[in-house]
Amino acid sequence: MNHRKTCCSRDFTLVVAGQIVSLFGNAILRFALPLYLLKETGSSALFGTVTACALLPMILLSLLGGVLADRVNKRNIMVGLDFLTAFVITVFYFLVGMVPVAPLFIVTLMLLYGISGTYQPAVQASIPALVPKGRILWAGAVVNQVGSLANFTGPVIGGMLYGLWGIGSILRVSILCFILSAMMEIFIVIPFHGRPTEKRILCVVKEDMKESIWFLRKKKPVFIRICFMIAGLNLFLSSMITIGIPVIIVERLSMADQLLGVTQGLLAVGGMIGGLFTVVFAKKLRPGKAWIFLLLCAFSACVMGAGMLLAEQLRFLKYLILSGTGLLVMVFSTMFSIQMLAVVQTQTPAELTGKVVACIMAFIMCAQPAGQLLYGLLFEKISVETPFIMVGTGAVSFFIALYAKKILKELGGEEDNA
Description:
CATH topology: Growth Hormone, Chain: A
Largest sheet: none
Low-confidence stretches: 1-8
Helix content: over 70%
Number of helices: 14
Mean pLDDT: 82
CATH superfamily: MFS general substrate transporter like domains
Strand content: under 5%
Structural class: mainly alpha
Number of domains: 1
Order of helices and strands: HHHHHHHHHHHHHH
Distance between the termini: 23 Å
């Protein structure tokens, strides 16, 4: 605990600074690569398929990341993976235009998402090691704000770079970002006590996952029900936003690439506002009442779909409604997710935090590939019914919010007993 008090400021600041640079590099890539693929192929179904395939290694490797986060120095994980990301993007840079688009993007995105899945558990597990228990919610909100800031500036700047100089400029900037982030992270000191083992890594992963699953089943079964609830949101609401917004803006509304960047930047602003509200109202927020934020997400999705029913001549108004309601979805979903993550971090033993967070993240992400495949096909095969796809997604999200109300009562009861 003394290390936390004396080094929290310096080391946590370095973690945050490294995240700012690294996540900015990620943000411009997440904007440019799908846009390039969509414009090159013109197929929302292929767009959804490639995105879904890319998520599969992220799901699997997030489990490995959780094990590594509890058994390997978290700083070394972050440094090594940032350098590896820079290398992968460099190879991709030289192969663009020389290799068929679809296989190149599938392999590259699978690698990048897999690295991200291994990286994030180390970041999340480092928070309890660097800040006092009473500041975990605050620290989680700060990290979330950093991600939202990067996700705001990334698409906006990425849209400008892409429009002026194409995909090459995006790749060069992102390579520089990951190298710089890795160099900053070298100087982080994170308290670490290794857990020696002579077993092979696969046996370690298996045993650690069993330990995490036992904890979830026997000690915190409410976490499992929360996972099912969030997985449902990923299957429908998150997948609709991820696939629908680029397809609608680029293909249905025929807007400029820069406006897509602005919209994705506004989604990040929504995340920033949600994180800021979480910090400001931290003492008033109760996990047992967090289902209200999901209800507001569902309502926003319905308004988004209703806005798409406007006349074709009102394209820019439809764009504004799409962007504004997307921002609101991000505000409310961010406030919900930060509270849920803080609950897991505070109610899980330190030696299990990385593995448990990784298990939960992997389970939740399992729904995303199926959702992105689904919405890629929906937006391509029944494009005329786009408004009803979005309203239907809002209706499903409404029922998930009601289900959440029942589940989260258990967290409210635990607070009352604390």
